[in-house]
Amino acid sequence: MAKRYKVGIIGCGIGRLHMVEGYLPHPDKYEVVALCDLDEARLNAMADEFAVPRRTRSSDELIAMPDLDIIDICTPPAIHTALILQALAAGKHVVCEKPLTGSLAEVDEVIRAEEKAAGMLMPIFQYRYGDGVASARHIIESGIAGRLYVATAETLWKRDAVYYDNPWRGRWATELGGVLMTHAIHLHDMITYLLGPVQKVFARTVTRVNAIEVEDCVSASLLMQDGGLVSATATLGSQEEISRLRIAFENVTFESSHEAYSPGDGPWRIIPANAEIGGKIDKLLSERPLVGRRFNGQMEAYHQALETGARPPVTSLDARRSLELVTAIYHSNDTGTDVMLPITAGHPKYASWRP
User: Fold this and answer.
1) For 340, which of 19, 249, 274, 321 is 20 to 30 Å away at the CA?
2) Under 8 Å between Cβ of 179 and 215
3) Can you tell me the distance from the alpha carbon of 159 to that of 195, in angstroms, rounded to the nearest whole number?
4) Distance from C-alpha of 48 to C-alpha of 55, rounded to nearest angstrom
5) Burial, 97: exposed, middle or buried (Cβ in 10 Å; 0-12, 13-18, 19+)?
6) How far are the Cα atoms of 22, 44, 45, 255 from residue 49, in angstroms, in the given order?
7) Residue 270: phi, psi to the nearest 5?
8) Rg value, the chain, Cα
């Protein structure tokens, strides 16, 4: 029989969504047995709601629990790295919200630790999960789509002063970045998930919507490794919230769902170049199994990896790729130049992209 893994969640904010969407739909695969949060009222409310037997305000105490298999890190970004390294050193599997770390130097440190650890680390990128994005990826990987021409990625969301009335949001030291880091990172991950590595970046970032330290508007131009062009735009000042990908290939054009927080959901618009291509796509998709959406799909895939010893469905290298793009965008904005990828040790922003 497949193992039922015992989970401890650190952070009852986004951690609640992990619980509701990721763990509860798979009661044969996971059991959340411990919660940790500094806010005692929030901790007790979530533990009571879901009958979680253990609660603590100490992450050290939770990580040290000997029977826990998985530590799920849902804290503010600045402490992710320390908690990941601590949990891996304790022999645990680790799930961690985005951004995985606060620099490329830190993510490389995590990758080195993971290579020596018994546990498996999975970063969270739940927007990869949904029938729409799964169909598009299946078509692209089959070769039917042909060459990439251009793509656009739009993260048009709304955040106001109430959202930033918080001790850690909107600050370089604690949030590590703005719309690029906390919001658009999802859709930008979907770009590389579907279209492959980025070769070169030119970008501008500004703060125009809120009185915060970090950026809330971004415009970036990406040259992909295969020669395709991508335009990525993000703001926190849109009066209607959408997340949208539109991708033009040689033989097919895709347009994602516009759902702000679940653009991977189906159906996507799939526009073939002609009837012959359309027939090939229909046949291909008729043979593809459906996948779960958001955290549900990612946690189901994670369990399968844990059971089989395969690579996790999202890897630390995937997280590095997303943070490399973040680093390149900040550096391009600061220097007014094209930035070549990959970014390695010795780059001015390798140790930190923060001002």
Assistant:
1) 249
2) yes
3) 29
4) 10
5) buried
6) 16, 8, 6, 39
7) -125, 110
8) 20
Give the tokens for residue 148: 């990439």
Residue type present at position 283: K
Max CA-CA distance within the chain?
A: 61
State the pTM of this model.
Answer: 0.95
Q: β-pairing, 237-249 with 148-158? A: antiparallel
CB atoms within 10 A of CB 317: 12
Distance CA 152, CA 155 (A): 10
What b/e sequence results for 107-145 when a residue is b if at least 16 CB atoms lie within 10 Å of its CB, and e otherwise? bbebbebbeebebbbbbbbbbbbbbbbbbbbbbbeeebb
CA distances from 340 to 274, 292, 331 (A): 37, 36, 10
Residue whose pair of structure tokens reads 């844990």 in the numeric block: 306
Residues pairing with 31 in the sheet: 6
Q: How many helices (H) and strands (E) does the chain have?
A: 11, 14
Share in percent of the chain as helix, strand, coil (round to 5): 35, 25, 40
125 and 317 Cβ atoms separated by less than 8 Å: no
Average pLDDT, consecutive stretches of 10 residues, N- to C-terminus, the chain (355 residues): 95 97 98 98 98 98 98 97 98 98 98 97 97 97 98 98 95 97 96 98 98 98 98 98 98 97 96 98 92 96 97 97 98 98 97 96
Whole-angstrom distance, CA of residue 77 vs CA of residue 73 = 10
Cβ atoms of residues 220 and 238 within 8 Å: no
